[in-house]
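Inputs:
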Amino acid sequence: MGLALIVGLLGLLILFHAAYSTIQYRGLLKITEEEFSGPPFDVVIELFLGLLLCFWAALTAPGKFLSIHPHSEDNSLFLECRIVSLPANLDFMIFNHRGKAFPVEMDLKLRQ
Amino acid sequence: MVTKTEETQLNRLENQVDNGGGGAWEYLCLVRKLKVRRSEKVLKHGLSILNDLKQRSSLGSDEWTLYEQVAVAAMDCQCLDVAKDCTKVLRKRFLESKRVGRLEAMLLEAKGSWELAEKAYTSLLEDNPLDQAIHKRRVAMAKAQGNISVAIDWLNKYLETFMADHEAWRELAEIYVSLQMYKQAAFCYEELILTQPTVPLFHLAYADVLYTLGGLENLQTAKKYYSSTIDLTGGKNTRALFGICLCTSAITQLTKGKSKEDKEGSQLQSLAAKVLEKDYKQRAPDKLPQLTTALKSLTLSS
């Protein structure tokens, strides 16, 4: 993980350096009044090297994949997070059930 | 969906509140969040908050949510006076509210004034024909009156418009199961599995329906869905384990040993039986002899 990050940073630095070199090169061409046809060969090499290093870092830095199976060792929280019951379907709640025959025996009133 | 953690938390809070340890508001919030039906307790603890001016004012805008929650709980407990009072308070605060209108119609339902409730729902639907909650209430009302065929028709019509409403699919499935219309129920559970493939209880219900339908193909599919339930619950579902045993036994009887799946099936059988025995040893050792007898009768004893 640490190595991958270092390599990634190195790759980014190389890419930035390649960009800076290209800007400098174009500035030089303006002075010599030549036409820009493309970056120099060493900058292209630098670009590819930077890209490769960044790719390698991006692919290795995220770490190992976790198992897709919910009960595997990787998913230690699974036992706590497993679904044990469905919610009551309250949108379809009906009121004429046995509660009508056995009303709540509490003296309940809403005081305003 | 209610997870193991949430269930534990709910039970802990319930005990705490019942024993006067405080936390009534947290309990009511959790009940609302998990959509569990605890009407008697909601009514008791909700009213205790609403009747205490200091507690009520500390809720801020949540006060009105609590009034609504208590009103519905009161209807469920047939404390219609309390429901009426809560609805009045809400109507006073929200004069033009359709949501309060729905609550008033529900109160009419709870009283058994079906025609008046129907009129109220119809007028609310005229204002907003796409109000899902009101469509659902009409279905519930038909079901409450015993007009199951009307409820089914309305639910089917509703699902033509709102196909992604899994609560409606579940309600329809349960109605079909209650009428022993298993093929239709199976279709509903298929829809539920498509929309929520990680919910093991839908896999289990679908497997139950297929097992009830019978026939070799259905039994084999049921076995697969019982297996997926076990997979999704980490082997913690006793019903699915029994389902595996019953399916395998039924398949063996139907195929009389001709099937190529026999070897794999018997392995699955013995695995399920072992897990069941282990589970019973841990949680209900006194019932282990009955289990062993049952498994032997299915020629499954491990």
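The beta strands of chain B are 2-3. Flag for discussion at group meeting.
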